[in-house]
Design brief:
The complex is a heterotrimer.
Chain A lengths: L2 H22 L3 H21 L3 H26 L12 H19 L37 H10 L6 H21 L5 H38 L1
Chain B lengths: L1 H4 L1 H17 L3 H37 L15 H11 L10 H17 L5 E3 L2 E2 L6 H9 L1 H12 L3 H32 L4 H9 L9 H4 L1 H14 L11 H4 L9 H26 L10 H22 L5 H29 E2 L2 H7 L2 E2 L2 H52 L1
Parallel strand pairs in B: 3-4
Antiparallel strand pairs in B: 1-2
Chain C lengths: L1 H28 L28 H25 L6 H23 L7
The chains are: A mainly alpha, B mainly alpha, C mainly alpha.
């Protein structure tokens, strides 16, 4: 087994274990932290795939930004601790997840994973030399990563990803506008209407639960007659 | 001379050769070498932390006309050791309601990720933990992990002030990450690489370039990077996260003993990291005449840190609304405008004949190109400052007018009562 | 290349070991006499009122969101910065337009007062 394989197995255990804990833990903040651990494992996978830039991008965007957004959102919307997560649609969610998983396996299984892997440099030792800086013996340039260069070139080219880049900018703008609209200051009348709606929903929920709870009572009463 | 210049490199090479001789070429030897190098990186970072706490206390004391630590050893030079002994023997109180693992892991994460910053810093030619081709980007990415650790500390302590302090801190840290990122981009554009070694060597003048540090060519980027770096590490005058008078001590109010020490260590290492990054990106890193390269890096980083100490010793703390306004309404727009200016200037005025042949533009001497960029960047800075000064003055005048009016009303009321 | 990152992994492990030992040493060396008032939440001597984990203001969310916006934009700009020398003026203009879109959303947020600290 190579070192890369051992690291891969460790990362898989961390990533899947953390992902499992995300959905099972009752504490929303802990769930967010497990999610971060899972993101960390994913960025390790990027390193194993020789995509260092995307590993760092994963770290910066997901661990440094998106997860903070998650934590802020959970803390802003509801009480974080002691809340029993109530998900009445978990059967549907499970069904969709299973279908998507099967679809993904079906999609990827025809692809051969035995890609020709470039012979790696020996671990740490012999081949540190790549290109010396002219006139400075011993000072090594970093390995120029042609994929980053190509990506950057493609982003600035309208025939390649230029349009996509501009569209993503517009998408971010729309997201910003939406968030500002959601977090806008409401008029008192709107707030009251919303509260009334929420109270009505809660009452309906309580009524439904109490109906469910009464059924055994009736059964017991019925039994006692005999 | 060569022996002194390559001292660190030869030492490292010697140790590596010795290990390969003893264990043979193999994975065990590789891992052993890396562990030794990792310990060396950790030693540099934590040694810097110990030295800087002493230097900072002594120098800030002098600025404020005090003596500073002077009991432990001659000139109080053993003060860091005394501090460590004290923190190690302090009782470590944990709040009863704390979230155990979150509370205990937060300081460790702060310190570990602060250490990881130093893995890509080139200390001398050939002496670098690992010369990543995404070095500059990696440092920004690793730096963003401290935000999570601060949220963990604030949450785990189960204290309102901690959580409030953590929220404020995160609002500050994530805000100032943006100008740091944006002001790194011009440097990378002019170098054509994110590797810190390439950035240093570019400033030292290979590839037919100017041989000028980037602070001359990109003064605005340099200044904005430094200021947002200070804010990013939460140092005075941006130390709202530990404003004792407002939110007790922020997110680390419940930490004591060595866990508090670890948080401090992480903060100092991050501040040192910003000083080193500024020296590498804008002052030419280890490049310099006469003195050996590693000494140049230490001198430059310490010089930058001296500025940080000077600011800490003299400036009052800013308010959080001022801090956030300064970032979002001044630094970020200014950095974006500067970025676009550099992008377009670099395409219009070209110094490399090969690039001129490929893309066109106006072919000029490299020095002239550097001067044009530096002058326009400086001019942009001056214009922005003039606009802000006028704006702030207007706001102050409006505020003063309101106060004056209020006082007059009060006097009229007082007069009518009599 | 991933061997470049091996050193970062090794440093992560070494730093975790060296730093993780510190609180344990502290625990072993220092006296441990906890009592009820020591373990109370510190609020300058006041009694703690209510739960810590209360709702926070929506404004924090907006700050985080506009940060995400610039973060994602910045990540896309790094490869462009590396490729800057091999891009012509038109490419620079495309990327400038993208950056200006980001600036426009910042301007919108400022104009709506979303970034005013109250």
């Amino acid at each position: 087994m190579t070192v890369a394989q051992i690291v891969f197995i460790l990362l898989t255990i961390v990533g899947l274990g953390a992902a499992f804990l995300v959905v099972t833990t009752r504490n929303l903040f802990h769930a967010a932290l497990y999610l971060i651990a899972s993101f960390f494992a994913v960025s390790g996978f990027y390193v194993l795939l020789e995509a260092g830039f995307f590993a760092a991008a994963q770290f910066l965007v997901y661990i440094g930004a998106i997860s903070i957004l998650f934590i802020f959102a959970t803390m802003l919307t509801r009480t974080v601790r002691g809340m029993v997560p109530r998900n009445s649609q978990w059967q549907a969610a499970l069904f969709i997840a299973v279908v998507l998983f099967i679809a993904m396996v079906a999609m990827f299984s025809p692809i051969s994973f035995s890609l020709p892997i470039r012979p790696d440099r020996t671990f740490g030792g012999v081949e540190w030399q790549f290109a010396e800086i002219p006139g400075k013996p011993g000072v090594l340039r970093s390995v120029p990563d042609s994929s980053i260069l190509d990506f950057g070139r493609a982003l600035a080219d309208l025939n390649q990803y230029g349009i996509a880049l501009l569209l993503s900018g517009v998408l971010l703008l729309i997201g910003m506008i939406g968030a500002i609209w959601v977090a806008r200051e409401r008029k008192p009348r709107e707030i009251l209407a919303e509260r009334a709606r929420m109270a009505a929903e809660e009452a309906a929920e309580a009524a439904r639960q109490s109906v469910g709870a009464k059924i055994p009572d009736v059964v017991v009463a019925h039994d006692s007659h005999h | 001379m060569d022996i002194i210049n390559n001292l660190v490199k030869n030492l490292g090479d010697g140790i590596a050769a010795g290990i390969y001789g003893a264990l043979g070429q193999g994975i065990a030897a590789d891992i052993l070498i890396m562990v030794i190098a990792a310990i060396a990186v950790f030693a540099v970072a934590s040694g810097g932390f110990a030295g800087l706490t002493y230097a900072e206390r002594k120098i800030v004391a002098r600025i404020q006309d005090r003596v500073g630590p002077n009991q432990a050893g001659p000139y109080g030079i053993l003060q860091p050791i005394a501090d460590a002994v004290k923190l190690f023997t302090k009782e470590d109180t944990t709040p009863a309601e704390a979230d155990f693992w979150v509370y205990h892991l937060a300081p460790i994460i702060v310190a570990v990720f602060a250490t990881l910053t130093f893995t890509v810093v080139p200390f001398a030619p050939g002496v670098v933990g690992t010369n990543l081709n995404i070095g500059a980007f990696y440092i920004i990415a690793i730096g963003s992990a401290s935000t999570i650790a601060i949220l963990m500390a604030g949450w785990g302590s189960n204290n309102k002030y901690s959580l409030l302090g953590a929220f404020r801190t995160v609002a500050q840290l994530v805000g100032y990450e943006v100008p740091m990122l944006l002001n790194m981009l011009p440097v990378i554009m002019l170098t054509g690489s994110m590797s810190l070694v390439d950035i240093i060597e570019r400033q030292a003048g290979w590839n037919g370039s100017w041989g000028l540090p980037f602070i001359v060519i990109l003064p605005l980027s340099g200044l904005a990077f430094l200021i947002s770096g200070i804010a990013e590490t939460g140092r005075s005058p941006f130390d709202l996260l530990e404003a004792e008078s407002e939110i007790v001590a922020g997110f680390h109010v419940e930490y004591s003993g060595m866990k508090f020490g670890l948080i401090m260590m992480g903060e100092y290492m991050n501040a040192l990291g910003v000083a080193v990054m500024f020296s590498v990106l804008f002052l030419g890193g280890y490049a310099g005449p006469i003195l050996p390269p590693y000494l140049w890096l230490v001198l430059k980083a310490f010089g930058v840190f001296l500025v940080l100490m000077w600011l800490r010793g003299t400036l009052p703390r800013v308010r959080i609304d001022q801090l956030l306004n300064m970032n979002w309404k001044f630094f970020v727009p200014l950095s974006v405008v500067n970025l676009i200016l550099v992008m377009i200037l670099g395409k219009v005025f070209v110094s490399d004949p090969a690039l001129f042949k490929a893309n066109g533009g106006i072919l000029i001497q490299p020095l002239a190109q550097a001067l044009i960029m530096g002058a326009s960047s400086f001019a942009l800075l001056m214009i922005a400052l003039a606009i802000v000064t006028r704006r702030v003055r207007k706001d102050r005048m409006a505020e003063a007018a309101i106060l004056l009016q209020r006082r007059e009303t009060n006097q009229q009321i007082a007069a009518s009562v009599h | 290349m991933r061997t470049d990152y091996a050193f970062i992994g090794v440093t992560l492990v070494v730093a975790c070991a060296l730093i993780g030992v510190v609180p344990i040493l502290n625990y072993l060396i220092a006296p441990q006499t906890p009592n009820k008032s020591k373990r109370e939440t510190y609020e300058c001597g006041m009694e703690t009122v209510g739960d810590t984990w209360v709702q926070f203001r929506a404004q924090y969310y907006l700050f985080a969101l506009i940060f995400v916006l610039f973060d994602v934009g910045g990540v896309l700009l790094f490869p462009f910065a590396v490729a800057y020398n091999s891009v012509n003026l038109w490419g620079v203009i495309v990327v400038s337009l993208f950056v200006l879109t980001l600036l426009a959303s910042l301007g919108y947020a400022i104009k709506k007062g979303a970034l005013n600290w109250e």
